[in-house]
Specification:
By secondary structure, the protein is mostly helical. It is 72% helix and 0% strand. The chain has 7 helices and no strands. Helix 5 crosses helix 6 and helix 5 crosses helix 7.
């Protein structure tokens, strides 16, 4: 597999290939996070408003609630029971926090506890 394809595959699923490269720092995989933080500097170009700041804070709190209550408590620890429709809705809402999917998150969290 070429180096670029390997980097792309590791970017999407770092557990799919076990190589010495998967354990080292990979700049390509970090680019979305780096660009996200650089994009925050656009506030000096576009400006800000009270509504925008309130929206940012509110959605940060809501997304962290989805991760804590649903990804962590429900999917990883099965702390409560719910219907299939609610599971789907919770997974979609938790996915808005951009922390991969619910099953990936729960699997890695369970591995963390072992």
């Amino acid at each position: 597999m070429t180096s670029r394809l390997l980097s792309l595959k590791l970017w999407l699923d770092n557990d799919s290939i076990k190589t010495s490269q998967s354990e080292s720092f990979n700049f390509l995989r970090c680019m979305p996070f780096i660009m996200l933080h650089i994009a925050c500097l656009a506030i000096f170009y576009v400006g800000w408003s009270t509504v925008a700041i309130a929206f940012c804070i509110a959605f940060f709190i809501i997304r962290m609630f989805f991760i804590t209550a649903f990804y962590h408590r429900y999917f990883a620890h099965r702390s409560f029971q719910t219907s299939r429709l609610a599971q789907f809705i919770f997974a979609v809402l938790g996915n808005t926090a951009a922390q991969r999917g619910a099953l990936w998150w729960a699997g890695h969290h369970r591995h963390h506890h072992h």
